[in-house]
Write a structure and sequence with these properties.
The protein is about 45% helix and about 20% strand. By secondary structure, it is an alpha+beta fold. The chain has two domains: about 5-125 and about 185-215, no CATH class; about 130-185, no CATH class. The strands form two sheets. It has a five-stranded antiparallel β-sheet with strand order 1-4-5-7-6, covered by helices on one side. Strands 2-3 form a two-stranded antiparallel sheet. Strand 6 (about 190-200) and strand 7 form a beta hairpin.
């Protein structure tokens, strides 16, 4: 099971989105796993959501600390505008793509985990997440089919309908994508412990590291 995110901009505050995260319960995933342990693959799904959040937070921390960015002001906060880092989550850990020293990455992952579990839940969400792309595609397809059925079958009307579907989806997708991340594809990693970080060359990408994690029933110090 995989998810994908890449970093292009944004400090972690998300003030410009005006999101107020409801406080998650520290034992909610562990409790759910105990109650529904008979469901195949449930633990892997829960781990994937937590890893996904840790991946996003790590990208945020690296983006905040990197010296290779040009800050641009948006609304009331500054955004880090770069494409240096990307990530790919699995239920065993996540790949981090981009040129980064392994010691710096180790510090960033540890700090990201600490900040997430210490209350900075907005770090779990990233505007460049692949979830947003999936939401945009689904919205575009759904609106296109709906307008195709509703509008006259003439080529001009259908072309206008397709353009309208694409434009509407582009407007709605970012906020709906953020909500999908918040409630579906990420979870605060209260049950994750960092095992190790290794250098790898996954696929065609360069500068890849794999951050391996393990499940734990309670929060522990990962330093």
């Amino acid at each position: 099971m995989y998810t994908y995110t890449s970093a292009k901009g944004g400090k972690s505050s998300f003030d410009f989105l005006n999101f107020d995260f409801t406080a998650p319960q520290q034992t909610q995933d562990a409790d759910l796993l105990r109650q529904l342990s008979f469901i195949p693959g449930l633990k892997e799904i829960l781990m994937l959501r937590q890893v996904h959040a840790l991946e996003h937070a790590t990208v945020w921390v690296l983006s905040e600390s990197t010296r290779f960015y040009a800050p641009t002001k948006t609304s009331n906060n500054f955004q880090v505008d770069n494409e240096l880092f990307g990530g790919l989550s699995t239920d065993q850990g996540f790949y981090l793509y981009g040129e980064v020293n392994i010691s710096d990455l180790r510090r960033a992952v540890t700090l990201a985990l600490h900040r997430l579990t210490d209350g900075e839940w907005n770090l779990a969400v990233h505007p460049r997440c692949g979830t947003n792309v999936s939401v945009s595609m689904l919205l575009t397809a759904g609106l296109a089919v709906s307008l195709h059925l509703l509008l006259p079958r003439g080529p001009m009307e259908q072309l206008v309908g397709l353009a309208l579907a694409a434009t509407t989806a582009a407007e709605l997708a970012p906020e709906i994508g953020i909500l999908a991340q918040r409630y579906l594809t990420t979870a605060i990693p209260f049950n994750l412990a960092i095992e190790n970080i290794t250098v790898t060359r996954e696929g065609w990408r360069r500068g890849a590291h794999f951050v391996k994690v393990r499940w734990q029933d309670c929060k522990q110090n990962t330093n």
